[in-house]
Amino acid sequence: MAVARIDERPTEQRPVLAVGPAGHPLRLAPALRAIAVGLSLIVLWQVLILVFQPPSFMFPDPEHVFAALRDRQDLWRVHAPTTLVETLIGLATGTLCGAVIALAMSLQPLTRRILLPTIVITQAFPVFAIAPLLVLWFGYGIGSKVVMATIAIFFPVASAFYDGMNRADPQVLDLTRLYGASHWHQVMLVRVPGAMPGLISGIRLAAVYAPIGALVGEWVGASSGLGYAMLQANGRAQTDVVFACLFIIALMSVVLRAVVDVLTARLAPWAPESVV
């Protein structure tokens, strides 16, 4: 009697750090990796200071920067919340505008022929060139900063979402036509779900660009915000305060990106991410 042999080959296993109570591997958390990278950059920063010994007004050391973070409480209590609010509102409005524009271009070819060149032209304008006009039109308050952040981030969202909708499987589209689906049904039932990974990538990219738009608006004209504090400190040659503002902006961007990653992780369960 012949017996079937099963070829047992050892499966390749990725190294794990520990094993949880349920037998699942516990890997290094992204937050810990970010902290490790940040500490490495600070060490490298201190090494550069010790080697080149630049003047403090040109390149301050970490001690003076952290002292500025400790002594200038207004950076955390006044200016950082202002920039954060502008960034969050700009991120929300920019994401909404980008998604709506991409959807409109996919639903109506005439809309695509009108909006696509317009969007490209608006992105060709330098940000600092239109920032004074936005301050003139929307004032020195939060409105001009939100508009600037929206303009800075809606294009990545619209471009990624629209490109994803254009890459739908032609065979699936032919099958929907065979069953009598209209163009609207094809977009909403096939193209939009297939483009969700692209939309997620656009939103994650926008989360990094959003603080830049708010800062540019504050540099042109504002009464508070980290961009305003940086201008004031730069005029007084307070380089340590400028670096302190940059540190807060970097921390804000990292946290915002992490929050966006968590919120968008389950938007496309049919297209799970494969972590390398």
Using the 3D structure, state the CATH architecture: Orthogonal Bundle
With strands numbered from the N-terminus, the spatial order across the biggest sheet is: 1-2
Helix/strand class: mainly alpha
CA radius of gyration is: 25 Å
- Supply the number of structural domains: 1
Number of strands: 2
Poorly predicted runs of 5 or more residues: 1-28
The description of the largest β-sheet is: 2 strands, antiparallel
Name the overall outline.
Answer: elongated
**CATH top level class name:** Mainly Alpha
- Listing every helix as H and every strand as E from the N terminus to the C terminus, the arrangement reads EEHHHHHHHHHH
Tally of alpha and pi helices: 10
Measured as a percent range, the helix fraction is over 70%
Average pLDDT metric = 82
List the helices and strands and how they pair.
Blueprint lengths: L17 E2 L5 E2 L3 H23 L9 H10 L1 H35 L1 H16 L2 H12 L3 H25 L3 H9 L4 H38 L5 H10 L3 H26 L12
Antiparallel strand pairs: 1-2
Helix pairs in contact: 2-10, 3-4, 3-6, 3-8, 3-9, 3-10, 5-6, 5-8, 6-8, 8-9, 8-10, 9-10
Structure description:
It is a single chain. The protein is 74% helix and 1% strand. The chain has 276 residues and is mainly α. The protein has a single domain (59-264), classed as MetI-like fold (Orthogonal Bundle). Strands 1-2 form a two-stranded antiparallel ribbon. The radius of gyration is 25 Å and the shape is elongated. Residues 1-28 have low confidence and may be disordered.
